[in-house]
Amino acid sequence: MSTIAEAQSTPAPWSKPRATAVLVLADGTVLEGQGFGATGETEAELCFNTALTGYQEILTDPSYAGQIVTFTFPHIGNIGANGEDIEDLTPARRAGAVGAVFKAPITDPSNYRAAEHLDAWLKARGIIALAGIDTRALTAHIREHGVPNAVIAHSPSGDFDLDALKARAAGWGGLVGLDLAKEVTSGQTSSWSETPWVWDEGHGEAGETDMHIVAIDYGVKRNILRLMAGLGAKVTVLPATATAEEVLAHAPDGIFLSNGPGDPAATGAYAVPVIRELAESGIPLFGICLGHQMLALALGAKTVKMHQGHHGANHPVKDHTTGKVEIVSMNHGFAVDGASLPDGVTGTHVSLFDGSNCGLSVDGKPVFSVQHHPEASPGPQDSHYLFQRFANLVRERQGKPALAER
Q1: Does the annotation count 375 as an active-site position?
Q2: Which of 311, 315, 372, 373 is catalytic?
Q3: Which backbone phi and psi does 220 adopt, to 5 degrees?
């Protein structure tokens, strides 16, 4: 027989538990759910991600700084969390998403690699999460109206000042004009030697190297650096504010412009002049995501804010240089205006979802970039060949034969 205390603590049949988290959109929409992860409240841009796997990699991707991620996949948490699947370079800085929205409550981990429960990991990471809402309806709202500014709040007591939260969401200026790279960059010079993860072995260490790559960190993902190390590169990472002189002082064989968050025009205020000089150096140069956008700005093109952005691991992109279509991982809310590419710059990749530019190269120079995330993590590995393409430009400059891209 149950006690009186147990009866009082058991919800009545069909009852709805009191909301302990809310998501408040700038238009005044309020969505209630159950809170997970960190407590508190924060404003950010609300987007959605259609990937079926890789929630830990998504939430630690520095390109998500200043954003709340809505997961369209309904069940999140069954893989748990571990120390190998984080993507930000300096975990103590907690660069990445500030909030997460799930359809179902976080599930218990059921995977041999799980080291802790996702809820505990979210708490330690400082990410506020909400579960128990119709995420597909929210996704449809974002598709129709565009990415909104929002506030996510979690309070175990369930007490919220909704008027204040609505005012906060409506008053936040959004990502346009924000330089977030300076907030997520590692801020110091470092070396990288870890190679890609191998099943049942983990990550390895690079051996002898035959090329030196300098990577400018605007919010770089670890798997990018792993793939370069895996191709036999010594990798030196410099902060986002590095000058051209500082980059060239390392005598690199190749230069990499990383992914990152925020408005490319804002970060480009100090990065574009540096990139322009590096592109003229004759040293092979490769950019991804924010690096792609700022390279385009340095070459004279324009960038635009997207209606809903591209976030997922299932985006089809065509590589015009080979005629092949690949399924790629994407995470960007700004894009290069393909029509603004100047003479001498060729669009190399295009999204088959909306026709937006996804890559460029400079005619007659070893300079190219892509908008998507070829390193995946999470996502398919269709675009891994781009790292070999970069390495082949270095090998050509070294007088060595090119290796097969695939």
Answers
A1: yes
A2: 373
A3: -65, 145
358 in active site: no
Q: Which amino acid is at 218?
A: Y
**Tokens 């895996």 sit on residue:** 230
List the one residue out of 332, 333, 363 whose CA is nearest residue 347: 363
Question: pLDDT (tens digit, 9 = 90+) per residue, 192-233?
Answer: 999 999 988 989 999 889 999 999 999 999 999 999 999 999
On whether the CB atoms of residues 345 and 360 are closer than 8 A, the answer is yes
The confidence score (pLDDT) of residue 200 equals: 86
Rg (CA), the chain: 22
The structure tokens 């690079």 sit at: 206
- Upper half-sphere CA count for residue 17 (Cβ side, 13 Å): 16
Strands 40-49 and 67-71: parallel
Catalytic residue among 310, 372, 375, 384: 375
- Burial of residue 17, with CB atoms counted within 10 A of its CB: 0-12 exposed, 13-18 middle, 19 or more buried: exposed
Q: Per-residue pLDDT averaged across 179-198, rounded?
A: 95
Instruction: Say if CB 108 and CB 117 are below 8 A apart.
Output: yes
What does the alpha-carbon distance between residue 102 and residue 77 come to, in Å, rounded to a whole number?
10
Query: What percent helix, strand, coil does the chain show, rounded to 5?
Result: 25, 30, 45
Backbone angles phi, psi at 57, to 5 degrees: -65, -40
The size of the chain, in residues, is 406
Instruction: Give pTM, 2 decimals.
Output: 0.95
For the beta carbon of residue 402, count every other beta carbon within 10 angstroms: 12
pLDDT band with cut points at 50, 70 and 90 for residue 294: very high
Report pLDDT digits (tens) over 125-137.
999 999 999 999 9
| Alpha-carbon torsion angle 189, 194, 196, 197, nearest 10 | -130
Structure tokens at 48: 């959605």
Q: Is 289 a catalytic residue?
A: yes
E-assigned strand segments in 155-222: 190-192, 211-217
CA nearest 261: which of 219, 324, 225, 221?
219
Q: Which of 289, 292, 315, 349 is catalytic?
A: 289
